[in-house]
TrEMBL record:
Compartments it resides in: Cell membrane
PROSITE patterns, per database record: ABC_TRANSPORTER_1, ABC_TRANSPORTER_2
Ranges in a coiled coil: none
Full protein name: ABC transporter ATP-binding protein
GO molecular function: ATP binding
Keywords from the named record: ATP-binding, Cell inner membrane, Cell membrane, Membrane, Nucleotide-binding, Translocase, Transport
Membrane-topology descriptor: Peripheral membrane protein
Chain ranges of the ABC transporter domain: 6-273
Transmembrane segments: none
Superkingdom in the source lineage: Archaea
Pfam families found in the cross-reference section: ABC_tran, oligo_HPY
InterPro entries cross-referenced by the UniProt entry: AAA+_ATPase, ABC_Ni/Peptide_Import, ABC_transporter-like_ATP-bd, ABC_transporter-like_CS, Oligopep_ABC_C, P-loop_NTPase
Amino acid sequence: MSETLLEVEDLHTRFATREGTVHAVEGVSFTVDKGEIVGVVGESGSGKSVTARSLIRLEDPGYIERGSVRFDDIEMTDADDRTIRRVRGDGMAMVFQDPMETLNPVFSIGEQIVESIKVHESPEEQRLLDYLNVPLFSSRGKRSQMRQQAIDLMSEVGIPHPETRVSAYPHEFSGGMRQRAMLAIALAREPDLLIADEPTTALDVTIQAEILQRIRDLNEELGMAVLMITHDLGVVAELCDKVVVMYGGQVMEEGPVEEVLTNPKHPYTESLLGCMPQTCDRGEPLNVIEGRVPSMVGGPTGCPFASRCWCSSESCTTGDLPTEQVGEDHTSRCHHVEELSEPMEADQ
Ligand SMILES: Nc1ncnc2c1ncn2[C@@H]1O[C@H](COP(=O)(O)OP(=O)(O)OP(=O)(O)O)[C@@H](O)[C@H]1O
């Protein structure tokens, strides 16, 4: 039986703004099992990044209002700084869309990977010795061993000539190489869960495919679970075991990838599928979902997708959404699941 690694339950994350309270994450629940690859998909502004950041307690300037994030039996929502640091040291690691958010321009890539190895090997000691201004690994042997580890990690993520590039600085790397370097920094912590927030969005398709392949290899070789945040259902289809479809800060549909993509049970998922280049006619403009993502100020009333949905009714504009069990491990939060189309034929 699969073992749950991460359990998110009824998570609410808010931002206090001048316009009012932004309900960025509104009662999100899902799980990630050990070794599983889960995709979180949705349009821009649907709450994917804020959800991901809340898991690893990087929600600031937002705040978690309520709900639970249990990682390997640790409750993250009220964990102290030491516990959070320990989890970030070797439990959950995050890769961001913009590598410059993580990479420090004044240190070489190699130094930054070594720093990550140190944090993984000894998160508590590191902190104390940093405070005392004493280097943790002072012996020459240990230093060269870690440098070699950094080179191995760079080679692992597909950086060519790692022996020379270990001394290079972030500005000397291309976008794709920076993304790989960031992956190496995250992997140095040997995380049980890698959270990857749109790690390939800014890259061209060939490099995107290579990085996704690396992530899949690492998942298979190391048994590392992955939470892949993306707006691209193609990435989900290629990489993930399970998918969580988000809209308006809420989970609209969740289930095994093959099942959700061939037999969607939420109009929003159907709409997203209809916008994939693969489902549009050649030479024709891509489909778009009419209307706009709703403002999240003040929180939702009814289904956030109601104003853009072809099958919405009065019941959709008020009250809470039902969670309908539509298959084994497959749920949809829609009043009209029965009205949605039949499963697609395999040859379609
Ligand atoms: N610092 C902030 N202050 C106020 N609101 C914020 C802040 N960060 C995010 N939000 C709001 O939270 C909501 C969810 O944003 P989030 O970045 O999680 O969406 P997303 O699905 O990840 O989109 P994208 O794919 O563009 O990153 C949006 O309405 C956004 O405007």
